[in-house]
C-alpha cells in the first residue's frame, strides 16, 4: 500500500521514498519500532529507531492535518461558499495555521461587534470607507442612521463600520501570515511581578523585570517564566513592536490620505489590539511552548535512557538499606535475582544511637546471607548510613554503593509493590526497590512511572500526553535492546517487550507459574492470546538461558534459525559447536547465505550474535565512593575538589551528587572544554566525575560546581 505522504516525509528526513514507504507499511501492520529497527533492516535500509520514530510521528501529524483539511472543506461546502479558488488554496496549504486562516471567515461563531453592525445595515458603509474615496464621512454616515435598528447617530454608524472593517482585517489570511512572521522574528517576551506577591515569588525574582526576544529564549527559561505565571506570580506578554505591527497593516490597507482613510486607520488599530494581537500571541505562545516541550522531553528521554541502561551488578547477593533517623534504617537481604530473604530494622543514628548493636546485626547478616554488596539509599540519613557501614570490620570484601532512591517511595505504595509483597509494609518494599536497582536497574525502574524518577527538566510543565508517548518509546527501546530473561522477568518488564503488552505479559507469568520454566521460544505459542503476530514481534527479544537450542539464548530471531543451521551444516558441525568455536565462525562467508528475505545487514547481526550470544549491551559495573570527610553542605569549602555522580542533565547544566544531600550544579559555562568542543565527549547520567566547589549558599541549599581543570 502506497502512502500519499511518503514523498514529503522522505524529502523532509532526507531518506528514500522506498525506505519511508516500507517503514510506514510495517508500522501500519502493527510492527513495533524495536522490531523494525532490529529485524527488518533489508526493508528499511537499516534505519535507526530515531528515524523510524520520526517517520511515525510525521505521518501522524500529516494524517491529522489532512483530516482537518477535509473537515474544513466539508464545512465551507455545506455553507454553499466553497469556490474553486478557495478549495485550491486549502488543498495547497501545508500547515495547520494556513488552513485555519483560510477557514476563519467561514467558521461558525457567536455574535460579534461586527455581526451586530452588519445586522444594523452598516456593511455598505464599511465597504465605502475601506475604498477610501469619500472625504465627507459625516454626510456619508447620516445615510445609515436608523433608530429602529439601533443606529442613533453618525458616530454609532462609523463605529459599527469600523467594527466590520476590523473583523475583515482579522480574517485576512495574508495579514495573519505576515503578522505571524513578525511575531516569530521580532516578538519580545516580557514578564513582570504580580503586585503584592513579592515575598511569595522570591524563587522567580530573576524574572520580575525580564525581557527577551522570543526566537532566542532557551527552553528552560521559558518554562521557568511560564511556571511563574501559572502559579500566579508573574504576568507574561508576548508581542512585537506595536509601531511595526501597525505599519505592516497600514502598508496593506491604507491607500489615501482623507477622512475615510482616517477611519480605516482607527479600524486597523482596533483590529490589531482587540483581535489580531491576542489571537497571534496565543498562537505564538502555544508554538514556542511546544518547542520548549519538545526540547525538555528530549532531555528527559535521553536522561531516562541513560538511567535505564545503567550497568547492573550481576551475580551478587545484596543487602539494601533504606536509611532513616527517628524511624531507623530498614534492612533487607536479597539473593542475586532480587528475591527477598530477610528484613529487619536497625537504629544506628540519633535519637536511638544503637551503633554497636547495629554493626553486629549487619555483620551477622552479611555472613549469614553471603552478602557481596550493600546498597544504601541516598535520601535522608544516606551519607550517615554510608559512613556507618564503612566503619564495620567485615570478614570479607563487601562493596558499599550509594543508590539513587528517587521514586522508590512511589513504588512502595503502588499496586505493583502490594502485589509483589502483600505481607510487607512500605518501608520493606522501598528497601527492596533500592537493592534491586543495584542488581538490575532496568528491571526495577520499569515498575515506576518515569516521571517519578526525577531526571527531567520541568517534566510536570510539558504536554503530558507527548511526554508519556516519548518515555514509552524510551523504555520499550531500552528493554528490547537489552533483552529479557523469559523465565525470570516480571510482568511489568515483559509488558515492554515488542508485541506483548500488559495482558499477554500477565498470561506469560501465569503460564510460567502453572507449567514451569520455558524450555524454548516456540513454547510461547502455547500462551493464551499470544498468536503468530505477537510471537514474530517478541521472540527475538526474549532469552532462555540454558535452553536446549542455544539460539534461544541469543538475539537471533527464530525466522533466521534455518540460516544458522545452514551455516553449521555447511561446516559439518552442530549449531552449538558453531557458537562455541570462534575459528569456525571466521570460515563463514555470509554472502553465500544471502536470500531475498535475509540480506547482508541481517547476516552481519547474526554473526555478531554467534560471537557473543545474548550479550548484554550495558557496560560493566563501576564502583564509586564519595569523599569520606564530606557528609553535609556545611562541610563544603570553596576550592575543594570532590568525586561526584551525575544525577541530572539539563540544557543549562549538569547536576552532580557529591554526597551532601543536595546536588550541586555545574553550569554549562563550567563544563570542561572537552565536553563542549568535542561531540564524542558526552556527559551522561551516573557518570563518575571530579568537580571543584565554586560557591556554597547554605541558606538556599545551593552549590555551584565546576568541571574545568579538575
Mind explaining what this structure looks like?
The chain has 710 residues and is an alpha/beta fold. It has five domains: 6-106, RuvA domain 2-like (Arc Repressor Mutant, subunit A, Orthogonal Bundle), CATH 1.10.10.650; 113-298, Orthogonal Bundle (Tex N-terminal region-like); 318-439, YqgF/RNase H-like domain (Nucleotidyltransferase, domain 5), CATH 3.30.420; 494-611, Tex RuvX-like domain-like (DNA polymerase, domain 1, Orthogonal Bundle), CATH 1.10.150; 633-706, OB fold (Dihydrolipoamide Acetyltransferase, E2P), CATH 2.40.50. Helix 1 packs across helix 2, helix 5 runs parallel beside helix 7 (96-103) and helix 15 packs parallel to helix 22. It starts with 5 loop residues before the first helix and ends with a strand.
Can you give me a brief rundown of this structure?
The protein is an alpha/beta fold. It folds into five domains: 6-106, RuvA domain 2-like (Arc Repressor Mutant, subunit A, Orthogonal Bundle), CATH 1.10.10.650; 113-298, Tex N-terminal region-like; 318-439, Nucleotidyltransferase, domain 5 (2-Layer Sandwich), CATH 3.30.420; 494-611, Tex RuvX-like domain-like (DNA polymerase, domain 1, Orthogonal Bundle); 633-706, Nucleic acid-binding proteins (OB fold (Dihydrolipoamide Acetyltransferase, E2P), Beta Barrel), CATH 2.40.50.140.
